[in-house]
Every structure is written in C-alpha cells, then in structure tokens.
C-alpha cells in the first residue's frame, strides 16, 4: 500500500491519543474552558493533550510538512507548504463532556490542495477508518484493530470496505442529522421527514464516515463549520473516492 509511512505514523498517533482521551473520558478528571464568552466552544485538558500527542508524532516524522489544528495557534507558513496535516484532536468535545461516546480524532494529509490520506478514530467504539487516494478505504474494529500491527499487507486488504449502493428513492434513504438542528429548524424538520429514516450521531467526522461505510445515505447540517470541521469532509471525500459502488 502506498503512503505506508504516513499511515504508520498517523495511526500510531491516533491510537496513542485515543488511549489518553479514554482515560479522561472515564475519569472525568479534566478542566473545561471556553473559546467564546458565550460558552459555545468548550475545550478540555483532553483536547490539548490529544493535540500534543498528535503533533509530537506527526511533526517529528514529517518536519517539512505544514500543520493545522484546532488546538494549535495557526502558523500561516503552512500556506507555503505543498503538504499540510489538518487535525481535529477531539471532534465532538461537547459530547465528550456529556459522557456520550460519539467523539473522534480526525486527521487529513493534503497535498497541493488534494486530500491524499485520511484517518478517523472513535476510541470508545474502537473504530478506525483510514484511506489513501487510490488505495482503498479500510475499517478496523475491536479485535482486528488490536491486531493491526501484526497484519501484513495482504491481510489488511481483507478489511477494505465498499460504500453501499444508493437507495432507489428518497423514501428508502437513511439520513444523518443533528437532533438539535432538527428541533430548532422547521424547514430541516420537514426535509428529513421525507426520508425513510433519520439517524443521529454527534461528531461531524463520525457522521461523515458513517455515510462512507453505508450506515446512512446522506448527511445534512445547517450549522456553520470551521476549517477543522471541513477537513473532516476532505477525509470523507477521500473515503468515498476509494469505495466502489
């Protein structure tokens, strides 16, 4: 598989960060601060520690690449780099604080503006999604995830996933949306009512990869997104580009 070094570093980094997040998640031993005076953007010690682990692993392995993370002061020199790592060290912080297990760590490597590597990890569910441009999309869960380091390239190929075929009609389709958005927006409520089923997940990255694996057919969101949210869409695009229909 191409990009083996990038995968090795990125996957090792998210697994290490995931262990730390789970300790915070179980013990609740973190402080919460807010980026906004309105209390809309919480950040915890877990966010910061996860970011430190990811940056340490990735930047030390690829010192010439750019770095862009929600929890790192932006260095505009990244705009001069051909390759940039775009990171959300804890996507779904509000869910994390509430004790909801639907949070993720998400990473994308973009080269000349094109996503070439994507990794999304949900630590509580032990779900690791990863893909590289032109080499397929993969999902490891539970025991297979724990045995990942012992698998050879041929065995890894057995875990490639393919997006399910689209439903024949809107009435058969499954859509992912935010429960809060639906409750607050009558137009969105009417829209999702036209679909066969509405499902809910918290992290935007988790929602997106859920579409990639066929758990749902589409995602709708009306809330504004930051750059570190949009990079999750990069990864989803990468995952879907690597799936055969």
TrEMBL record:
Gene Ontology annotations of biological process type: inositol metabolic process; signal transduction
Keyword Hydrolase recorded: yes
Positions bound to Mg(2+) 2: 90
InterPro entries in alphabetical order: Inositol_monoP_metal-BS, Inositol_monophosphatase-like
Keywords: Hydrolase, Magnesium, Metal-binding
GO molecular function: inositol monophosphate 1-phosphatase activity; metal ion binding
Binding site for Mg(2+) 1: 70, 88, 91, 229
Protein name: Myo-inositol-1(Or 4)-monophosphatase
Source species of the chain: Kryptobacter tengchongensis
Entry cofactors: Mg(2+)
Gene3D superfamilies cross-referenced by the UniProt entry: 3.40.190.80, Fructose-1,6-Bisphosphatase, subunit A, domain 1 (3.30.540.10)
Entry keyword Hydrolase: yes
CDD domains in the cross-refs: CysQ (cd01638)
């Amino acid at each position: 598989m191409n990009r083996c070094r990038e995968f090795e570093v990125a996957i090792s980094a998210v697994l290490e960060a995931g262990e730390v997040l789970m300790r915070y998640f179980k013990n609740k031993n973190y402080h919460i601060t807010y980026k906004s005076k309105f209390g809309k953007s919480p950040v915890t010690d877990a966010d910061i520690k996860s970011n430190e682990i990811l940056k340490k692993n990735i930047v030390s392995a690829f010192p010439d690449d750019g770095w862009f993370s929600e929890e790192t002061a932006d260095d505009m020199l990244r705009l001069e780099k051909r390759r940039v790592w775009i990171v959300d060290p804890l996507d779904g912080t509000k869910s994390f604080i509430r004790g909801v297990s639907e949070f993720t760590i998400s990473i994308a490597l973009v080269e000349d503006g094109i996503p070439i590597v994507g990794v999304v990890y949900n630590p509580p569910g032990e779900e690791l999604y990863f893909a590289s441009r032109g080499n397929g999309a993969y999902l490891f869960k539970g025991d297979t995830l724990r045995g990942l380091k012992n698998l050879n390239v041929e065995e890894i190929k057995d875990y490639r996933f393919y997006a399910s075929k689209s439903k024949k009609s809107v009435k058969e389709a499954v859509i992912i949306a935010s429960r809060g958005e639906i409750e607050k927006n009558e137009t969105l409520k009417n829209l999702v009512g036209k679909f066969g089923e509405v499902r809910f997940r918290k992290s935007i990255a988790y929602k997106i990869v859920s579409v990639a694996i066929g758990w749902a057919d589409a995602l709708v969101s009306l809330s504004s997104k930051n750059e570190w949210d949009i990079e999750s869409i990069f990864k989803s695009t990468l995952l879907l580009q690597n799936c055969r229909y």
